Amino acid sequence: MTFRSELTWEGMKASGLEADYHSSYEKAADDLLAMVRGGPMIYPNHIDGAPSLAQRTFEDVSPSDRDLVVGRFQRSSAEEVSRAIRSSRNTFLEWSRMDWGDRVRIFERAAELMRRDKFALAAAITLDNGKTRHEAVADVDEAIDFIDYYSEEMRRTDGFERTPGAAYPEEEVSLRLRPYGTWAVICPFNFPLAISAGMAAGALITGNTVVMKPSSDAPLPVHLFYEIMDRAGLPSGVLNVVAGSGGEAGDALVNSDAVDGIAFTGSLEVGRRLMRSSAESGRRIIAEMGSKNPVIVSGEADLEAATDGVAASAFLFSGQKCSACSRLYVHESVYGTFMAMLIERASRMTVGDPFDRGTDIGPLITEQAMDNYLRWTEMAHRDGKLSLGGEPARTSGPRGLFAHPAIVESLPEEHYLMRRELFVPILCVQSYRTLQDAVVRANASEYGLTAGIFSSNETEVRYFLETIESGVVYANRRRGASTGAMVGSQSFAGWKSSGSTGMGTGSRHYLPQFMREQSRTIIRQ
Ligand code: UN1
Q1: How far does the centroid of ligand 1 lie from the alpha carbon of residue 112, in Å?
Q2: CA nearest neighbour of 499 among 470, 520, 524, 477
């Protein structure tokens, strides 16, 4: 099998199935909403293959309708977490010794089940983190892509086993990558299925066992992932799921001596803490930690393409992506024209109920994010020129956390908003005179995840590619100036403080990070 991106929307559209796409999603959304409105479901933890209830629970509320309870999840204690870790440790030997082909077949079945349940999974994502239908389906597609791609990597590398030449004639040598043991997988709210499944699949398919902690802002997709893995035939106890707060369940998990590695996607602050404690304990860590991604619009850019690319990248999903464009450098010769186009485009983006077909941008994830948006746009207004946004969007529909795209110009280069990852739809814009200067300013960040340029001048594009300090870079990408990396194609690697290893997800270098090398020499008797 050769890997192919799932691309549900593009595929269905090309086959004339646009109407089916929408009706399938809407049916799944109606079913889910009817179930949720019938009263909150209680979601247990999963420990040792059995549902497990902690002593306390927490309520997970939908960001697009604060009156809608998605479900009650377990507020796991340290004791609950250590039971999950024990279960993962107990199953490690058997799972790691299983033929790798058998492990891969479980994942291939899981990908098939996800394909079948695609729209139900997408509706659950919309409900839980507020993604619009296209973005929610893309999240499911990305989860499938991760699983398919990592399955194919196992096959391509023969399960990471090879036979080197032997120095002595009597020696038979084989080289293999072997799993570490039990991994903690700490999941983000923004790609609650794709990134969670990608990290967990990376650890599991290579023979490790896993304890997953979903984000408490969007735990439902991780529970659905568990059910899929269970149905696909994953043996009991190989994957355990414990919900709860970062401070209690999360800390108990990542600080446990019984955990051999941590896969984490989230904030720099938490990632740094994990990296420090891992350095002391010798635990492996694979962390992806956000960014402050710059995009450059040159004087020789196709301004229509740049307008679309920047608006999509900065504002879709309210800028709540590590890959979102948050700093924009526009050449002074096109500054006025381009800014008028961008402001016009962004002000036409519809903000509201993410289940609605016509919505471009759904809600922010939490009240805290809304407070940040209001506080920071106020700051932008005080210290620069706030050209768009700054007020909560008024919608006639449900009580959600809706914010308009905001654009702020002319902030000082060192301003807080120019430096800090915001994770709300605020784009900071500056003008520049020389490309050299724009790149220096773009690189003056502790982060280095994604970046983009719009220019029809090849010399400029080459200069940008050779000097920009980011792991995922794009030139003239209208579908997303800095967002929308595709598994198996654009590997997703964070440079500088954006990543702990400099190697990307969805690439050949991802799986080896979950393993260590063993050379085996046998002298036949
Ligand atoms: C993230 O926001 O953590 O390139 C990752 C993209 C997505 C991944 C974003 N494939 O926008």
Answers
A1: 23
A2: 470
**Domains 8-289+501-523 and 293-487 in one fold:** no
User: So which residues are the catalytic ones?
Assistant: 288, 322
As its CATH architecture, domain 293-487 has: 3-Layer(aba) Sandwich (3.40)
Ligand 1 atom nearest the C-alpha of 490 is 4
Q: Where do runs of H (alpha helix) occur along 282-411? A: 303-315, 335-347, 367-383
- Reference 132, options 394, 392, 360, 397; nearest CA is 360
Residue among 131, 191, 215, 286 whose CB has most ligand 1 atoms within 8 A, to mutate: 191
Which residues line ligand 1 at a C-beta cut-off of 6 Å? 142, 190-191, 195, 265, 321-323, 483-485, 492
* For the CA of 506, the nearest atom of ligand 1: 10
Contacts of 270 (CB under 8 A, 6+ apart): 246, 264
The C-alpha angle 250, 125, 193, rounded to 5 degrees, equals 55
Query: Do 211 and 184 contact (CB within 8 A), yes or no?
Result: yes
Single-letter amino acid code for the residue at 295: V
Q: Which ligand 1 atom minimizes the distance to the CA of 290?
A: 3
Distance of CA 285 from the midpoint of ligand 1 (Å) = 19
Task: Kindly state which CATH superfamily the domain 8-289+501-523 is placed in.
Answer: Aldehyde Dehydrogenase; Chain A, domain 1 (3.40.605.10)
User: Domain ranges in the chain?
Assistant: 8-289+501-523, 293-487
> How many CB atoms are located within 10 Å of the residue 50 CB?
11
How many angstroms separate the CA atoms of 130 and 319, rounded?
12
Report the helix count and the strand count for the chain, using DSSP H and E.
16, 22
Ligand 1 centroid – CA 236 distance (Å): 31
Residue 288 forms beta bridges with which residues?
A: 265, 499
Residue 349: DSSP 8-state: S
pLDDT tens sequence across 19-77: 999 999 999 999 999 999 998 899 999 999 999 999 999 999 999 999 999 999 999 99
| Cα–Cα distance for residue pair 81/79, rounded to 1 Å | 5
pLDDT in tens, 96-154: 999 999 999 999 999 999 999 999 999 999 999 999 999 999 999 999 999 999 999 99
